[in-house]
């Protein structure tokens, strides 16, 4: 366990964040999620298109009203007869436009919420199935920011994104209306396009980088905060409070600076877009004036064009003011899709069904991310159904070897194989198995066992979903945990874990051993699984662990040498190497390192617990 606590606060390998999807991959993923709901896509698109046509019809009809009134004044015709159907059509267009636009927005929001829920589920699923070393490298903060903050940012942006899509459709329909009104007025309208294009081209690439940076800084801030909370004991132990507060402050300031840079860039962009609107409207009215004077278009046409353009300020304003949110949502979405698209690790071979298994470690070398090699070539065979204790001084590499033997992370070099106890010709490499298959074959309990927030029943059912109460009590009886479990206020319904009924460290270990009993794998790895207990508690846990080992292949990092003595063989490690291997009596008789450790153990009186 050496260096672990400290690493949790300021490890060198923590900057490898999880992948972020490219724009194309993100769009494809969202498209696929949307296409899974064809009904919603069709209804929201149809409502948006028809609603936009109705909305755009109003200024066009008002242009006709102007022409009718002018004609009536000139020729003294019956203005009322001509105006009545036009005004009725305006009223219908207004009502249909309003109803369908709000329907389109509602349907698009439902679609967005479904996509957000779908992606959230995929991210949670991928995070839970991620190889532990990937999770450790990325840091828990990065994963939790994506599942919580990023999904939240996207979900909150769904109404805005719906409004943006609706506005885009309205702009498209307006362009068609302009062209049908008069091509010269349409040309005048199009003078805004180069202004828009230039300012968008200068803003968008900048904004993508600024918003991605803002999200990344937010992620770093969460990670530093979470690590400070999780590693608070280490922070106190090493007197690192001030240093850690500085890191949190630094991360917050960097986050704030990134957010301000993004806002400033947006303010400059908004200014150029307002200027473009002024240029466009002036061009439409000036062109219209010249065309009316030359008798090429009617006053009604120019009125319709000016009203149309004015009508566009709304959708264009939405597009403009939402760019901020859309860019932020896109950055968040790219981070969500980055995880959602990760291939869940799957077994490269068909997982064997093994009743008993020999564990074979060949040429195991390992270096952590700092590059310093801590295991220097270990070859080891633990025959099926036998137990091997691993002992040695602190920092010898016992925990690293146990984690590699359990498949928690792969070695830098070498292989860990399971060989069928009944058919030694077969072998499966742990590196070829996914976490689910691996854990059905190799169970592990370490010193840092975790009790999940929920009822005792739920905590146990994690390893055997749907397992009935009878079986759960049988398992608790089997490990002797039933004695204290029955005394809990609500038995299996007692809420344990964070915020629940407090359990002692020994009870938490007892529970972890019970989960192992329930899972019933042919191979078990215990890393100081009985260390977190008083002497009496340790004896009880050792008895439970011994029972669990019976009939299984076991690797036990033994905190207490009495536990090592009970194993079939003992491996002594020093400086990342295997230095002795044999039974307790042989090793004591050999007078080597183990004999020295045993002498120290017995003379220090710790054997009294045996
Ligand atoms: N996450 C890590 N990153 C970098 N180095 C590590 C990490 N974990 C362990 N080490 C280093 O690897 C070496 C072996 O550590 P390991 O925890 O395997 O030894 P150990 O024999 O189990 O020690 P202990 O009995 O104190 O738990 C040590 O030098 C340790 O500092």
UniProtKB/TrEMBL annotation:
Entry's Gene Ontology molecular function annotations: ABC-type oligopeptide transporter activity; ATP binding; ATP hydrolysis activity
Any Pfam family matching the protein: ABC_tran
Stated name of the protein: ATP-binding cassette domain-containing protein
PROSITE patterns: ABC_TM1F, ABC_TRANSPORTER_2
CDD domains per record: ABC_6TM_exporters
PANTHER family: ATP-BINDING CASSETTE SUB-FAMILY B MEMBER 10, MITOCHONDRIAL (PTHR43394:SF1), ATP-DEPENDENT PERMEASE MDL1, MITOCHONDRIAL (PTHR43394)
Protein's cellular compartments: Cell membrane
Primary location recorded for the protein, binned into one broad class: membrane
SMART domains associated with the record: AAA (SM00382)
GO CC list: plasma membrane
Domain ABC transporter: 359-600
Protein topology in the membrane: Multi-pass membrane protein
Transmembrane spans: 40-62, 82-105, 161-179, 185-204, 268-292
UniProt entry keywords in alphabetical sequence: ATP-binding, Cell inner membrane, Cell membrane, Membrane, Nucleotide-binding, Transmembrane, Transmembrane helix, Transport
Domain called ABC transmembrane type-1: residue spans: 44-328
Organism: Auraticoccus cholistanensis
């Amino acid at each position: 366990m050496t260096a672990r606590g400290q690493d949790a606060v300021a490890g060198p390998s923590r900057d490898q964040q999880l992948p972020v999807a490219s724009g194309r991959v993100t769009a494809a993923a969202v498209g696929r999620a949307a296409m899974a709901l064809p009904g919603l896509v069709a209804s929201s698109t149809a409502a948006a298109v028809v609603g936009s046509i109705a909305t755009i019809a109003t200024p066009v009809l008002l242009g006709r009203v102007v022409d009718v009134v002018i004609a009536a004044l000139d020729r003294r015709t019956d203005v009322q007869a001509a105006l009545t159907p036009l005004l009725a059509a305006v009223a219908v267009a207004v009502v249909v436009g309003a109803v369908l636009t709000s329907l389109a927005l509602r349907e698009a929001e439902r679609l967005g919420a479904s996509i957000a829920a779908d992606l959230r589920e995929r991210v949670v699923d991928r995070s839970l199935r991620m190889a532990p070393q990937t999770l450790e490298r990325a840091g828990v903060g990065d994963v939790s920011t994506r599942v919580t903050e990023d999904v939240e940012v996207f979900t909150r942006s769904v109404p805005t994104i719906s409004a943006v899509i609706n506005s885009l459709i309205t702009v498209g329909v307006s362009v068609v209306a302009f062209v049908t009104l008069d091509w010269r007025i349409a040309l005048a309208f199009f003078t805004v396009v180069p202004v828009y294009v230039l300012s968008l081209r200068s803003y968008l690439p900048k904004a993508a980088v600024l918003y991605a940076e803002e999200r990344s800084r937010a992620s770093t801030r969460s990670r530093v905060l979470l690590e400070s909370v999780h590693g608070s004991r280490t922070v106190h132990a090493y007197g690192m409070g001030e240093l850690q507060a500085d890191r949190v402050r630094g991360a917050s300031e960097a986050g704030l600076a990134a957010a301000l840079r993004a806002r400033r860039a947006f303010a400059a962009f908004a200014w150029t877009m307002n200027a473009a609107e002024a240029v466009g409207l002036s061009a439409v009215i000036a062109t219209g004036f010249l065309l009316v004077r030359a008798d090429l278009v009617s006053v009604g046409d120019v009125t319709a064009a000016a009203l149309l353009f004015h009508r566009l300020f709304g959708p264009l304003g939405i597009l403009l003011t939402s760019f901020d949110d859309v860019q932020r949502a896109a950055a968040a979405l790219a981070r969500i899709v980055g995880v959602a698209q990760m291939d869940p690790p799957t077994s490269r071979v068909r997982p064997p069904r093994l009743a008993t298994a020999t564990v074979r470690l060949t040429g195991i070398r390992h270096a952590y991310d700092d590059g310093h090699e801590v295991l220097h070539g270990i070859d080891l065979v633990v025959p099926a159904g036998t137990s091997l204790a691993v002992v040695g001084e602190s920092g010898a590499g016992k925990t690293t070897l146990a984690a590699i033997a359990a498949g928690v992370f792969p070695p830098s070099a070498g292989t860990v194989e399971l060989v069928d106890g009944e058919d030694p010709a077969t072998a499966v490499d742990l590196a070829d198995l996914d976490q689910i298959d691996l854990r059905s074959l190799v169970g592990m309990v370490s010193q840092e066992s975790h009790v999940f927030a929920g009822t005792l029943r739920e905590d146990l059912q994690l390893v055997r979903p749907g397992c009935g109460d009878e079986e759960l009590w049988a398992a608790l009886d089997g490990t002797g945990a039933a004695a204290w479990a029955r005394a809990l206020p609500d038995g299996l319904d007692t809420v344990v874990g964070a915020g629940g009924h407090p359990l002692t460290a020994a009870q938490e270990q007892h529970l972890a051993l019970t989960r192992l009993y329930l899972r019933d794998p042919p191979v078990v790895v215990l890393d100081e699984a009985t260390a977190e207990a008083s002497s009496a508690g340790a004896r009880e846990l050792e008895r439970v662990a011994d029972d669990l080992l019976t009939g299984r292949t076991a690797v036990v990092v033994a905190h207490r040498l009495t536990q090592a003595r009970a194993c079939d063989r003992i491996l002594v490690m020093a400086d990342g190497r295997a230095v002795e291997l044999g039974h307790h009596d042989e090793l004591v008789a050999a007078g080597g390192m183990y004999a020295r450790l045993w002498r120290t153990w017995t003379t220090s009186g710790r054997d009294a617990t045996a």
